[in-house]
From TrEMBL:
It holds the Pfam family ABC_tran. This is ABC transporter ATP-binding protein. Keywords: ATP-binding, Nucleotide-binding, Transport. Residues 25-37 have a biased composition (Basic and acidic residues). It comes from the Bacteria.
Length: 296
């Protein structure tokens, strides 16, 4: 069998990036079809929410989740992953969602990332109600406005660090010179300029996650969704990666001066002090530590 080409790598990563956080999201673990046809997303007209700041026309909240329910399966084996979750994430904040394994963190991030639709309730991202978007609009939102960071890094092993970072730019057909400039800048941002020519297998786990964060930033997303980004790293390396996400949310600005917002799922207690706000998922309900009940 021949060596996989860069092009086949793009096809793969396009799948990964457009499928987002959970690679098996296209079909549920129980064979349940995804949201299409369930009366969920991708049938609508693109309505926006109303609470704009009046100046730039942006909503105050990057993410608005209102009384969202999501159940997998039916009958006695049904799993009520989310049971009336409400949450707002203001622009420019880093919000951490913590909760034990199986508490619904990935389910929540999938809904925000437009990979799945709630059974009921409302999810709005960047001022747009996702239920009002058609499929192509959801794809465009994911490609242009959201960056994903996975626990497993999801880098292409045949590509160098620089090529991995450049994949989203290639998918958007960004001219080579512009692409190379942005890749160099991003690798410098994550402290990996010296490692540009190395492949993932030649990098440590922490370095690989830094490459993945640089890739997530390539298209200047307004929202970063990170699902257990430190889950495969030791405590110290994980803290470094979380500090990087913190710095990105504090310092990075898009071409229009807009900052980055992040929603990060983690069960690592040591990372929580870096968040602007921590919310906790348990039994399908969201709580702010110290508070008794949602909504938040
Ligand atoms: N596609 C699916 N089909 C059926 N059940 C699912 C599906 N996805 C998640 N679940 C169930 O929903 C619940 C919440 O899962 P979810 O993956 O959102 O939790 P999590 O907090 O992200 O867990 P982890 O930290 O282990 O990744 C679990 O009981 C899980 O088994």
């Amino acid at each position: 069998m021949g060596v996989p080409s860069v092009e086949s790598g793009f096809v793969y990563v396009n799948d990964v990036l457009s499928c987002g956080l959970r690679h098996d999201a296209a079909e549920s673990r129980h064979g349940e079809p995804r949201a299409e046809g369930r009366g969920g997303y991708w049938g609508g007209t693109g309505a926006t929410t109303e609470h704009t700041d009046g100046g730039r026309g942006l909503t105050a909240h990057m993410v608005e989740i209102e009384d969202v329910h999501r159940t997998y399966g039916r009958g006695p084996t049904a799993v009520h992953a989310l049971r009336g979750v409400s949450l707002t994430v203001p622009r420019g904040e880093l919000v951490a969602v913590r909760g034990r394994s199986g508490s619904g963190k990935t389910t929540l991030l999938n809904l925000v990332g437009g990979l799945d639709a709630p059974d009921s309730g409302r999810v709005a991202v960047d001022g747009t109600d996702l239920a009002s978007l058609g499929e192509q609009d959801v794809l465009a939102l994911r490609r242009d406005r959201i960056g994903y960071v996975f626990q497993s890094f999801a880098l292409l092993p045949v590509l160098t660090a620089a090529e991995n970072v450049g994949v989203p730019l290639r998918l958007r057909r960004t001219p080579a010179a512009e692409r190379e400039e942005r890749v160099a800048l991003l690798l410098a941002l994550v402290g990996l300029s010296e490692h540009a020519a190395q492949r993932p297998g030649e990098l440590s786990g922490g370095q690989q996650q830094r490459v993945a964060i640089a890739r997530a930033l390539a298209n200047r997303p307004a929202l970063l969704l990170a699902d257990e980004p430190t889950g495969q790293l030791d405590a110290e390396t994980g803290h470094g990666v979380m500090e990087l996400l913190r710095a990105v949310v504090r310092d990075e600005k898009g071409p229009d001066g807009e900052g980055v917002t992040a929603l990060v799922a983690t069960h690592d207690e040591s990372l929580l002090d870096l968040a602007d706000r921590v919310v906790e998922l348990g039994d399908g309900v969201l709580r702010e530590p110290g508070r008794v009940s949602s909504p938040l």
